[in-house]
Structures are given as structure tokens and as C-alpha cells.
Fold ABC-2 family transporter protein.
Amino acid sequence: MTAVTASPGFTAARTVRLGIRRIGFELRQYFRAGDQVFFTFLFPTVMYLIFATIFTGDVGQGPDSVSMATYYLPGLVAGGIFLSGVQGLSIEIAVEKSDGTLKRLGSTPISPATYFIGKIGEVFVTAILQIALLLTVAVVLYGVQLPADAESWGRFAWVFVLGLLACALLGIALSSVPRSGKTASAVVIPVVLLLQFISGVYIAFTTLPEWLQNVASVFPLKWIAQGMRAAILPESFGAAEPNGSWELGLVAIALALWLVAGVILSRATFRWIRRNG
């Protein structure tokens, strides 16, 4: 049974180099799976099209008011990050355990660190393409005005990177829960959908009961969505948050803690084969 340690003779540089080379392979595998492309890559854009078309009008008052299409955008961006990292990787790795891919890799000199780099690299590339598609649709079809200042895009960047890293590592850890590749979707998707509904992706966060807000605050998606609202919506919208501000410092701390938790959980749970395998 293989723990998450580097293989003998593998230097850190070689591990990273092989991991980067695996990114291309992982991307080819990803885009060959049509169902995965729809439910993780295209799903946020499809949901955005539905919400932005059904719900019209403006939110807010005066010069800081925004269209509903703008208002829903940060939540769907956050949802896309969560789908790519948690749902996409957990199901993908669970299937690879079930079909023997991980067992075959475990018999080669490749280290789990190399495998992780390939998977996380795949998630970053697909998430960047996914968010670019979503933003393009928002601007072209709904006339959404994206932020024009560097500070807002700086916020967008660090929330994106921290959030996606945390979600990817949590996805690796969650892949150990399904007992087979066939049951992976049934185990993972309901959890992901539930968290999206209580974390401010589809429903305004402050309209939820306080106890449900407290539950959502335990998980990273709530903080990713809050950070994306801070990046995309006017500054005045921060007053509508539960504590009356964007609390970006708390967003950074929460995502950093989940990143550390993801490292620990992924290292503790990942095996090339199941313990009962």
C-alpha cells in the first residue's frame, strides 16, 4: 500500500517536471469525457444563462445598482470553482480507483505528488477556461460591466487561486469516500448541490435563516462566493453582507485554513488502491 510520499530516486525537481508533463495527459482525458465536461465545465454557464434570463431588473439603489445578470455572476463563478475542484476531482479519482488506473500507476515509479500536480494542473487550466467562458457570456449576452480597476481583479485572483487549491485538495480527499466509481456521482453531487444552495451561489446568502448561514460558514464555498462578490460587485454591496462588510481578511483566513486542511486530508486518505482492495 502506497502512502503519499515521493518514490525512491525521485528528486523534487523531477517530481515537479513529471507532474507538469502529466497535466497535458489529464486535460486530454478530461475533455474526452462528455458527461464530465457538461457537469463541471459547462454547468455554471448553463445555470447562469437560466438565472440571467429568468430574473431581470436591477438590484441596489442609485448609481451602484446592478442588473440581476451582474448580481448572479460572482456566485456562479464561485460555484464553478467548487465544481471543478471538489466535484470534478473527487469523481474522477474515484473512477480511476475503480477501473484500476490508480493500481497500475501505483506499480510504476511515479509518486503520488506527481499525480497530484497533474490533477491540480488540470483543474487550474479547466477552471480558467470555464470562468473565461462564463465572463464572456456575461459581457456579450447580458452587457455585464466587469470591474475596471486593478484592486478588484487582484481580489478576484487571490480568491480564485486560494479557493481552487483548497477545493482541489478537498476533492482528492473526498475521492476516498465513494466505494466505487459507479457510486461516486451519487455520493458527491448531492453534497455539492446542497452546499451551493446554502452558500450564496443560487440564493442570496442573507435571505437564508441565520442557522443555515452558520452551517454554510463552516465550508469554503461560502467564503469563495463572498470573495467573488467583493471582486465583482460595487463596494456598497458589502453593507448587505451578514456583518456589514466584505471581511476579506476573514475570507483569506478561512480559505487558507481549508487549504491546510485539504493538504492534511488528501495526504491522509489518498491510496493507489483501497485499503480493502
About this structure: The beta strands are 58-59, 66-67. The first helix runs from residue 12 to 32. The chain has ten helices and two strands.
